[in-house]
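User: These chains co-purify. Model them together.
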Amino acid sequence: MRRACAAAFGVLLLAVAAGCAPAARAPLDRIEALDDGEMIVVGRVELVPPLRKGEQRIRGIGTAGLENRMLLIVDERSRPLPRDLAISDYAGRVEAPLGETFFVRSRGAPFHVLGGVLFLDFGGDTQQRAYFPGGLQVDARPGDRAVYIGTLRYHRDEFFEVSRVTVVDDYAEANAEFTRKFGSRHVLRKSLMKRK
Amino acid sequence: MNRLVSLLAVAGLAALAGCAGGGHGRDINDPSNSLVFGYVDMADAPTKVSGVQIQQVAPPTEKPYWGTDVRDGLFYTYYLPPASYRLATLHGSSFWRGEYQYNFPRQGGGTTTVRIDKPGIYFLGAYKYKDVKSGFFEQGKFDIERVSSPTEAELLQRILDRDPEIKGSVWADKIRQRIDRLKR
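Assistant: Joint model of the two components:
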């Protein structure tokens, strides 16, 4: 009986993670929508090799935020990425579309990338996740309105073993996208993710 | 010692694709086949093991799950084409405890995975089930620990002795040769 309860609750937790988890950092289309003390965080996550068709199986209502997306778990406090993530750990996550630049609203303060989570199988009778290392820090200065943090590139094999992690400076490309999206009046300051 | 913390789920097994020994329509004597086998001692588990699935992870495929034959903890399939595979799930049931599915984590290489570049005989290892305490509201967890017995040669001999289909196939000679090499 205990096992039955535990399993049922586990499924419930994951469903919550997909649909009703604390809010992610919201994507932003207009820089004017920022409040005082907020900034846009611009960056990218890449898998090398990229996800192949069939490597991720996401099914069910409200799971679009998981498809081809790495959930970057971030916190203003430095701490290890928990192996069993609590719902609260997802608060303020960045739902980074793999291989695409993200633009998300964030508090204008330094933060830490604790790691990444990629849901590999969701909505069937098993839930499978892959975890990616973090331990990275992003500096923010008072008055920052837009910060470029770099491309977080994970080299992995077919078993999702991560062999190498690099932060790549794709500023020129990101800045061009930033300018197309928000106009040329705003400055995108480079503040690449750094190892602590 | 290999330890994997894996998730245990009480699940209906109807959703599981693949049947025991499922060969996806391949011929037992296809020269590109590999024999992949292993063993798990479920004495400390809630159920015995009655089904084992191996997942093809690369190249990805629409039908990634391969069933295996299961006999007293020994599991094997002799249909696998060159690809990368992992031990995905065990399942079993008992009258008192119902149906159980034991899920291995998708992430991570190690001994319960195999990358087959050329056809052959691949041993995933012999393991013993270990229960892991989890919180009341947590999903159940388990470990498996590598054990030295039964050995690869003993398990191959069991396959040869107990599977008449293998005995009448190209595998019989290959298995005998492998046992000879292991005993040298």
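Chain B touches chain A through 38 residues (CB under 8 Å).
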